[in-house]
Amino acid sequence: MLYVVIIYLWVAILLYLLLGGADFGAGIIELFTSEANKNRTQKTMYRAIGPIWEANHMWLIITIVILFVGFPAIYTTMSVYLHIPLTIMLLGIIARGTAFAFRHYDAIVDDMQGLYDRIFVYSSAVTPLFLGIIAGSAVSGHIDPQATTFLSAYIFSWLNWFSVSVGFFTVAICGYLAAIYLIGETDTEADRQRFIRKARFMTGAAVVCGGLVFVAAYADGIPLFDWVFGNWPGLTAILAATVSLGLMWYLLAKGNRYTVRVLAGFQITMILLTTTARHFPNIVLLKNGGYLSLLENQGHAKTIDSLAIALLVGSIFILPALVYLVYSFQKKPVDVDVHV
């Protein structure tokens, strides 16, 4: 049952990155959109993320619940030493959701619409930035349970070059996912080409930020290169992601709108697999060589069994409901005017 819970944890993280990441990426795309095209971008974005923009956070909730119930030592360590980036990320989620709702449904059109727009786009960038910082901090080796000062315990555990570079890389891949997904929601060839250009820009940004991650890892003494290229699963995953990237751009040139989404999701899946497989089951790497393991730091066996059963039974109800949610919105598209 323990491995059932671990699989659910990994899949929940992956789905939040793929779906919630594309959700955040839509705001990032809007941030880099000119005023002349902003209204069309907003309408396309709403048509794409409107049905599931709230449901995406379910995967984050599942991740937190699994850690809280099944791996309390890991949950406690991360929530204590990384409470500052966690708080900023959660505030970003709240601000983004509030702005998204108000700018579409506010009954009064006034100067507040511009404020809602700014809150939405900036929180769309800040939230995945700190999500990536949290992920980078977990494996950076900077969390020090023996820290004796506030700075070493609660600031330098996450404020370091490696964690910040992972944050920027996360922002870039969220924008990349959104641009690829939004291509299939366009109504005109001009809009399609515009989102293709955005996808190219975000691809370049992801490559640059990915390079910065390796540079920062080398500077901080983190064996990231070995994690990625020092084993056959990592090499295979990176090769598969690279081949799929080339295939995706070929299909885009041929006018394909939907298969490219699967390929983009596959690339992110391979990246996550590469960066987690090497040090599994250790999910948190502590300073001075310590670690927290999913196999050694789990909760009571009966708790794990109950959690696994709850996840399995819950899937029977949740997954069909999500499929129907997306299906129902596709059958009856929502066309809501966006205030600018």
Automatic annotation (TrEMBL):
Keywords: Cell membrane, Membrane, Transmembrane, Transmembrane helix. InterPro entries: Cyt-d_oxidase_su2. It comes from Spirosoma flavum. Its main location: membrane. The lineage of its organism: Bacteria, Pseudomonadati, Bacteroidota, Cytophagia, Cytophagales. The chain crosses the membrane at residues 6-32, 53-74, 80-99, 119-139, 159-181, 201-219, 231-252, 264-286, 306-327. It comes from the Bacteria. Belongs to the cytochrome ubiquinol oxidase subunit 2 family. It is a multi-pass membrane protein. This is Cytochrome d ubiquinol oxidase subunit II. Pfam families: Cyt_bd_oxida_II (PF02322). PANTHER family: CYTOCHROME BD2 SUBUNIT II. Signal peptide: none annotated. It is found in: Cell membrane.
